[in-house]
Design brief:
This is Ribonuclease E inhibitor RraB. By secondary structure, this protein is α+β, with helices and mostly antiparallel strands. The chain has a single domain, classed as Alpha-Beta Plaits (2-Layer Sandwich), CATH 3.30.70. The protein has three helices and six strands, in the order αββαβββαβ.
């Protein structure tokens, strides 16, 4: 399944992926609710800043390229705190701030990250875009 990553130790197990998916899907509605408090309606389109982590540059590069192919800005590099951890970050194209749309996008990011042996670590945004 992860043939191109055979030479590197797995970063995220299937169980960690499932646990993270559950966690991210529980957090996204809370974040959307906080945005509502700042006047962001479900009709508003916002770019989301996203974060992933992994343990190898080849995995970070592969995910970053796929995110770019979706029309997102994307970059990767070493973690400020750990040279063995790679960080992938960037901004999406504008996304509807409906809870349903954000939940669907969050699920997609978790699965996309896992397919590249990266862990989706969540998202943020600026309601003043």
């Amino acid at each position: 399944m992860f043939g191109i990553f055979k030479s590197k130790k797995r970063f995220i197990s299937e169980q960690q992926h499932k646990d993270n998916l559950d966690y991210q899907l529980s957090m996204s509605p809370q974040t959307v609710a906080q945005l509502r408090e700042h006047g962001v309606t479900e009709n508003k389109l916002l770019k989301l800043e996203y974060f992933f982590y992994t343990n190898a540059s080849v995995k970070a590069k592969s995910l970053s390229e796929e995110l770019s192919s979706l029309g997102y800005s994307s970059e990767f590099g070493e973690s400020a705190n750990d040279d063995n951890i790679k960080v992938i970050t960037g901004w999406t194209s504008p996304i509807s701030m409906s809870t349903e749309a954000v939940m669907k996008w969050t699920s997609k990011m978790c699965h996309l990250g896992y397919s590249h042996d990266c862990e989706f670590d969540g998202w943020g945004t600026n309601p003043e875009q």
